[in-house]
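For practice. Any example?
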Amino acid sequence: MTLDEILKEIKNAQTIVILTHEVPDGDAMGSAIAMKLALESLGKKSHVIIPEYPKMFDYLPNITEIKIDSEIEKYDLAISVDCANFKRMARNEYFENAKKTIVIDHHGSNSMYGDINYVNPVAPACCEILVGMAQYLNIEMTKEMGTCIMTGMITDTGGFRYIGVTQDTFEYAADLIRVGVNVPEIYKRTMRN
């Protein structure tokens, strides 16, 4: 199964980079940082490289750890989140130079450009896919990770108003609230700006 393959590549990698699309939105930002936190829970360090992002996301946990660039030229593993194609990826040279690549996305237009592609076009946000991955990989959901994931879910669903929102979306949201995620605060910071 693809998630088992992903876990194997994560365990084998010594250096990991997480990338997303240019001009990142809440789903891109939330997915990237949530992935970093998930990797930490698996005992893996990683770099999130995003050259520019909207300051409205400064409230996200670990936002200060985002890098503009890296001294590592060739990572063992590059993980792309919420990015439908290679050309739209910010700092895609890190993805291109990596020994192994993984794409995690929810866009139906995804060009399947990774060595391993985990794409669910039915999911309304990439962050929703990460919730399912965390459950499968037995990664404990924390308030910090949940805040990142809820940011992506709220922004990509227009505050749960767009077509594509499902029962699973609300069940995942309820699980995130249970770990202490402050939905009104995230809504205020993302949907009113």
